[in-house]
Specification:
Elements (H helix, E strand, L loop, with lengths): L1 H15 L35 E3 L11 H4 L5 E7 L2 E6 L10 E2 L2 E4 L2 E2 L6 E2 L11 E5 L4 H4 L6 E5 L7 E9 L3 E11 L3 E12 L8 E13 L4 E15 L6 H6 L20 E16 L4 E17 L4 E21 L3 E24 L2 E25 L4 E18 L6 E9 L4 E8 L2 E12 L3 H4 L13 E14 L4 E13 L2 E5 L5 E5 L3 E14 L7 E17 L3 E2 L2 E2 L11 E11 L3 E10 L2 E2 L7 E2 L2 E14 L2 E10 L27 E11 L6
Parallel strand pairs: 5-9
Antiparallel strand pairs: 1-8, 2-3, 4-7, 5-6, 8-9, 10-11, 10-38, 11-12, 12-13, 13-14, 14-15, 15-16, 16-17, 17-18, 18-19, 19-20, 20-21, 20-22, 22-23, 23-24, 24-25, 25-28, 26-27, 28-29, 29-32, 30-31, 32-33, 33-36, 34-35, 36-37, 37-38
Length: 688
């Protein structure tokens, strides 16, 4: 009865409140402005793309990025075990057994997604960036290959000088230490951050440890020229417990995968990930004159991964480099008509080595395969944004993309080389925005294109897949927005239809190895509703501010014509995606410094295989954190405590899709708690 009552109360709160949208880390400044960089918009008033802004530091439990991203309708972050997360934007994790694929990710204008199509998103921590921009449609018109969406991680270069120290601890021996400092002068900004995390995890064999360091600087050379540089280094280790069958999940969700047949248990295999990543680059911006701006970014990156697994031991060395250059023309006539024309090129080159050996108790044994992979990708793009009046805005963009991969198997003689090349001559995007006072409607059509990644062409079976084709499709989208109460209340509704051809789908063989196939067509229809409200009283009353964020997504994703090995899955529901998801998050600060942050998340039934014969049950998650903030001259103090999964739901987060033997389930933590303290030292006293 208590559980049912709490759920009903959560839904009741949702019905009487409407949620908020776009906030930045400092809770004392909930409406702090940020620069929207996606599609070169630089603002929201005439935005011809729907961009969602999120900041992980608004959430007290900074161990994971998951709570922040799951507040966005249509976005779902999953975690198989601490450190092993993946990002799903409108179903894009269909290709991702782990990590992030088919979503293009940038950090401070540098591509994080490597030229092989993979993104080590787990290298980022809560203080690695100031805020993230999320775009949920194909972004190929300006950002190259990728049909699953766009994610831009940005550092703010205008934060005040201060030093921040934070420590929190929680259930399962979790410890999290954060340190960051900002130093600002008349013509420069420098920011550094460090985070160290360690914990035992909820399940057996889920210990993890992570250290991440970042450094960013921005220097104004003169009124026209600006130089910025960034460095990110992450060293992490996490054990991988493996998925469970339904019976094992029901009997003991905390167990790791046991021994099965000839395969050892996860603990006996010492299954784990040892990962080191390094990313650095700089961006030079030059305002050639009042109308023309040129921006160039050059970067280099290196990833080293060791993965003892139940089947084998994989070692990957993945250096890559590249750059992006953009020339933008801004013209305005009569303060009503304007044109913004941006054109550029992005290029990436990678030289990877992938070695697979037998696993002997967590150490590499007999070498099985050794592959060199040279991968290259480039994109030529142009986009124009035309303002006919103050109420009509038109955007038209198109790109030409090409990628190639060459595999050299060094364990065969003579050395065998296989070459793959993919191209998409045109990937356009057109959108039209109409504004009527506080109401706006945006219509867009875009084409997405995504070639197979290195991990899909060379999956854990060790057999190079020569039959995979690139997936591509057209997305049609309509968004309506309405503001009320002097823009304190904002409501947004988006309907979309994405017709994806040659969709890449994850499969698993009898031994549990991953491989991929083209699934024909997928018809993705959906509706996303978001709303936000913020209350900022004029005088000192009860609240300093009060804001709420809500998001709802309905996903009707079905296979078209899809026949695989004499099995006809046509018309079946695409697995891994709940048909309904709902999130609610609120931030309430009282004038005496006390604050309250409740949250709620719901996911409906999730099918786990293409045949729709297995499904994960729906679940409701309730969380809360309470705290106290106080400023003493040049010192800020914050104390907080909280709990997640208050209903103690038993659920799987990060299911293994199409798993052999029914090993779908990766149990998420039950009811758990955390507490922490944060201290900020300011350069000058700013008052409350």
């Amino acid at each position: 009865m208590l559980k049912r009552g709490l759920v009903i109360l959560s839904l009741f709160v949702f019905t009487i409140n409407i949620g908020v949208a776009q906030e930045i880390p400092d809770s004392s400044k909930p409406l702090e402005n940020v620069t929207v960089r996606a599609f070169e918009q630089k603002g929201n008033e005439s935005a011809t793309a729907v961009i969602k802004i999120v900041s992980p530091l608004r959430f007290d439990n900074s161990v994971s990025l998951l709570p922040a991203f799951n507040t966005i309708a249509g976005v779902r972050m999953e975690e198989r075990s601490p450190g092993s997360n993946r990002l799903n934007i409108r179903g894009s994790s269909l290709r991702s057994p782990f990590g992030v694929r088919n979503v293009k990710v940038y950090w401070n204008n540098m591509p994080v997604t490597d030229p092989g199509g993979n993104t080590y998103f787990n290298q980022f921590a809560a203080n690695s960036f100031s805020y993230a921009e999320v775009f949920k449609s194909p972004a190929s018109s300006m950002y190259g290959a990728g049909s699953g969406g766009l994610l831009l991680l940005n550092t703010q270069f205008d934060k005040p000088t201060q030093l921040n120290v934070e420590f929190n601890a929680g259930s399962f021996s979790t410890k999290n230490f954060l340190l960051d400092g900002n130093f600002t002068g008349s013509n420069y900004y420098t920011g550094v951050s460090m985070i160290h995390q360690k914990g035992d995890g909820y399940r057996e064999h889920t210990q993890s440890e992570k250290t991440s360091l970042t450094w960013s600087t921005n220097l104004r050379l003169n009124e026209k020229k600006e130089l910025s540089a960034s460095v990110l280094f992450t060293d992490m280790y996490y054990q991988t417990p493996g998925a469970l069958t339904l019976k094992e999940f029901q009997e003991n969700p905390r167990a790791a995968r046991p021994k099965a047949g000839t395969f050892p248990s996860a603990a006996d295999a010492k299954a784990a990930i040892f990962q080191k990543t390094f990313l650095t680059g700089f961006t030079f911006r030059n305002h050639l004159n009042q109308s023309v701006e040129h921006t160039t970014t050059i970067y280099g990156s290196y990833a080293e991964v060791k993965n003892p697994a139940i089947r084998n031991y994989e070692r990957r060395s993945e250096p890559h480099f590249g750059g992006r250059t953009l020339l933008t023309l801004n013209k305005e006539w009569n303060h009503q008509k304007s044109l913004k024309w941006s054109s550029g090129i992005e290029f990436q080159q990678g030289y990877f080595n992938i070695m697979v050996s037998k696993n002997k108790g967590g150490s590499p044994d007999t070498l099985m395969t050794n592959d060199d992979v040279n991968t290259m990708i480039y994109s030529l793009f142009t986009q124009a944004v035309l303002s006919v009046t103050q109420s009509w805005f038109l955007t038209a963009g198109v790109s030409y993309n090409k990628s190639s991969l060459e595999f050299s198997r060094l364990t065969s003689y003579p050395v065998r080389k296989q070459f793959f090349s993919y191209k998409n001559e045109l990937a356009p995007r057109v959108s039209v925005l109409k504004k009527i006072n506080d109401f706006s409607i945006l219509a867009s059509v875009s084409k997405g294109f995504s070639p197979p990644t290195v991990a899909e062409l060379l999956p854990s079976t060790g057999i190079i897949n020569t039959e995979l084709e690139a997936e591509h499709g057209w997305n049609y989208e309509l968004t309506a927005k309405q503001s009320f109460l002097k823009r304190k209340l904002n409501i947004e509704a988006t309907g979309f239809y994405f017709n994806l051809n040659n969709a890449l789908v994850l499969q698993r063989d009898a031994a549990g190895a991953d491989f991929f196939s083209n699934a024909g067509k997928i018809h993705q229809k959906g509706l996303e509703l978001t709303a936000d409200y913020i209350y900022l009283p004029l005088g000192r009353q009860i609240f300093d501010y009060f804001l709420i964020n809500t998001g709802y997504a309905f996903s009707h994703f079905r296979y078209g014509n899809y026949v695989k090995e004499n099995n006809d899955y046509s018309g079946k529901t695409v697995p891994s995606i709940p048909a309904h998801s709902l999130s609610l998050w609120s931030d309430i600060l009282l004038v005496n410094g006390l604050y309250f942050k409740p949250s709620y998340y719901y996911a409906s039934k999730i099918y786990l295989n293409d045949a729709n014969t297995a499904a994960a049950n729906p679940y409701h998650l309730l969380g809360v954190s309470v705290g106290y903030k106080k400023q003493f001259q040049k010192l800020k103090l914050k104390l907080y405590a909280g709990a997640d999964n208050l209903l103690d739901e038993r659920y799987s987060l990060g299911n293994d899709i199409n798993a052999s033997g029914g090993r779908f389930y990766n149990a998420a933590p039950g009811r758990n708690f955390f507490a922490g303290v944060a201290i900020s030292i300011l350069k000058t006293s700013t008052g409350k």
